[in-house]
Amino acid sequence: MAAVESARPQAAKLRWGELEEDDAGDLDFLLPPRVVEGPDENGIKKTTEYRFDEDGNKVKVTTTTRVRKLGKARVSKKAKERRNWAKFGDAVHEDVGSRLTMVSTEEILLERPRAPGTKEEPSVSEGLGPVQPGAVLMVCRTCGKKGDHWTSKCPYKDLAQPPETFVERPSTADAASAAPGGAGRSAYVPPSMRGGGERTGTEMSRRRNDENSVRVTNLSEDTREPDLLELFRTFGPVSRVYVAIDQKTGMSRGFGFVNFVHREDAERAINKLNGYGYDNLILRVEWATPRPN
DNA sequence: AATGAGCGA
To answer: Burial, A102: exposed, middle or buried (Cβ in 10 Å; 0-12, 13-18, 19+)?
Structure first.
């Protein structure tokens, strides 16, 4: 660095990036200027320039390039073919060739818990008689009843199939998605649970339920709940799947639980899948012992 | 080898 500065004091004014220049760079003024010819009618451009090579010898460099004519982009055969397709969709009403790209007007409906602008939970006080102030948040997550009892005290909590008499409880999956925010419980339907129909009466619940609970261990670390569901649903309606996740790492802990609506299905699943090779590992499938609360 | 999270007065 010091040597450079003493030899060529003006280099001190250069920024570090400019110092990266080839040493000969400073002597460029000794070279003839660059000459560019063309491009001619064929798009051929010739450039003649001079530089110093690494040994300090003057070298003449001529470059010939073909310049693509403006607006004459190369189009692949396939693309040309596509241009001859008959117009379809919204483009059938367009003049041929007027536009190659159409803006889609297709409506895509997104499911969301509550559409913006709609009101939240109906007020607790409506029609429920006297409600303790401060009890507004007391909504049973099992039956949806407000201001009456906590989930843990729900009279229906042990019922596999909640009675149809539940207040404000949509009885079908369709009703659940058609009335976002209106029901007493979350209207969100996980993707794997959407599209009701077949599943009537076997509603998957996030709620813990120890009925017909099957413990699955020796799961590979990338087995997720949908995978478990796929595997076990062939035995009958599954009310819940759970894969234990390490809260710190977010990784599977290698075990999970599957709850069946019917005990016989659980039993068949255990008999069939215990010792079953899945994702390079041998599954262990057994009855789960209920966890103490 | 291994037994789940959330959701509160």
So the answer is: middle
- Nearest 5°: phi and psi at A277? -75, 125
- What does the pLDDT read at residue A126? 40
Question: Which residues numbered 228-267 in chain A sit less than 7 A from strand B, measured from CB?
Answer: 242, 244-245, 247, 253-255, 257
Buried b / exposed e across A74-94, counting CB within 10 Å, b at 16+?
eeeeeeeeeeeeeeeeebeee
Q: Which residue has the tokens 């110092």?
A: A19
Give A109 CA → B5 C1' in Å: 31
Domain boundary at A27, A42, A66, which?
Answer: A66
Residue A131: CB less than 7 A from any atom in strand B: no
Q: Which parts of chain A register pLDDT below 50?
A: 1-14, 16, 18-25, 120-135, 160-203, 205-207
Query: Residue A189 is part of which domain span?
Result: 140-200
A151, closest nucleotide (Cα–C1'): B7
CB of A98 nearer than 7 A to strand B: no
